[in-house]
Amino acid sequence: MRQCRLTTLLNRNYLVITVQPALTGKNILLIISGGIAAYKVLEVIRRLRDRDINIRAILTKGGAEFVTPLSVAALTENKVYQDLFSLTDEAEMGHIRLSREADLVLVAPASADILAKMATGQAGDLATTALLATNKPVMIAPAMNVEMWHHRATQANIATLENRGVIRVGPSSGDLACGEVGSGRLAEPAEIIASVLDFLEAQEAPKPLAGKKAVVTSGPTHEPIDPVRYIANRSSGKQGHAIAQALCDAGADVTLVSGPVNLPDPAGVKVVQVETAREMLAAVQSALPADIAICAAAVADWRTAGEAGQKLKKDGAGFIPDLKLSENPDILAIISAAGPKRPSLVIGFAAETENVTEHARAKRTRKGCDWILANDVAPDTGTFGGDQNEICLISGTDEKTDERWPRQSKTGIGRALAMRIIDHFS
């Protein structure tokens, strides 16, 4: 039984031996698709087995053109699976078990073909069926011709997969097997191995928010005017979803109450879909009690006093309907109010277009929340609906306590907030 990996480095006059702890008991489902780079994956298998990581492999028909089942079986020390309709294989280890008993599904090399099938949810062979059936994290290491890599279809497929949370390693640039030079080269085995180990070791890291319950709101609300039209705003939900994912990754039990968005659900998070502000308030209250509440949704401040039962029609005479508005419930203020179900940490957002911190500080006092995250959503910032954000965390009445975070991805903001919350509770 392998218990550690020994790395030896000759450093001038002496030998340095680094002992790295084994990841005993971790399981990887390796899918080897077609491509000359498949031969490099044999080194990946060997080095991961040196860490006592158990590997089961699915070899596609294309992959078997470049590496043999016998070589893969010898290195994994496990049976190699190839046929979706093998009665013996399905009896011994069905494709559902294959995909769900793994801690990570690694597709290497990931050809343009299998990426396209993953993006469109096809299940025509054992590999794609296992990928469609898995509920575990997936990592891909693409490898293909440079023109195939840069083709808009491939790039669209990659974007789709990354939006679903698929982790990508490479490709790198260099000489390709086809004789061309450019992007599309399989990441080196050392890079793939490092990415796998980083992922598995992160799963073993302490979960500092374990035992904490969090509720996060995200996205816009849609307030109907009639069956066709509604009042809304430009919120994409990207920031709220990123926060929910970061809290979940830190071990919290997270409920995400989301307005209408075009985003995948964060992995491991309970998601409640709503449309209106009143529905959002009801869903948040149902998720209480909680330790943490983060109101990141851009809730419409007003709704029509009475929704029309039929589509409002123009009469051709220039008549404009008189829309009477009613104020929506203030979710942040309601959750912040003292009471037996008030979370111990309530965080709001202040999306402002001018005098950002001044308005945010006043909003914190008015709403009664503990912290407020101020962000500038003026049109020239590109933050409202964009992929990046710039935050000032306000936790007091004195600007000396303000924490200004650099402009970064909304994923980065989510992680930074999770770390700040961890510090608060510790």
How would you describe this protein?
A hairpin with a 5-residue loop joins strand 12 and strand 13. The two termini are 39 Å apart. The N terminus is likely disordered. By secondary structure, the chain is of the alpha/beta class. It folds into two domains: 201 residues, 3-Layer(aba) Sandwich (Rossmann fold); 190 residues, CoaB-like (Rossmann fold, 3-Layer(aba) Sandwich). It is built from 14 helices and 24 strands.
Provide the β-strand percentage band: 25-35%
Helix content: 25-40%
Largest sheet: 8 strands, mixed
Tell me, briefly, the overall form. Answer: elongated
Q: In a nutshell, what does this entry contain?
A:
The protein is α/β, with parallel strands linked by helices and 426 residues long. The chain is 33% helix and 25% strand. The protein has two domains: 201 residues, Rossmann fold, CATH 3.40.50.1950; 190 residues, CoaB-like (Rossmann fold).
How are the SSEs placed, and which strands pair?
Blueprint: E1 4-11, E2 14-21, E3 27-32, H1 38-50, E4 54-59, H2 69-76, E5 80-81, H3 87-92, H4 95-100, E6 104-110, H5 112-120, H6 126-133, E7 138-142, H7 146-150, H8 152-163, E8 167-168, E9 172-175, E10 181-185, H9 189-204, E11 213-218, E12 223-224, E13 230-231, H10 238-249, E14 253-258, E15 270-273, H11 277-287, E16 292-295, E17 302-304, E18 325-327, H12 331-336, E19 345-352, H13 356-367, E20 371-376, E21 388-389, E22 391-394, E23 403-404, E24 408-409, H14 410-425
Parallel strand pairs: 3-4, 3-6, 4-5, 6-7, 7-8, 11-14, 11-16, 14-15, 16-19, 19-20
Antiparallel strand pairs: 1-2, 9-10, 12-13, 17-18, 20-22, 21-24, 22-23
Helix pairs in contact: 1-2, 1-9, 5-8, 10-14
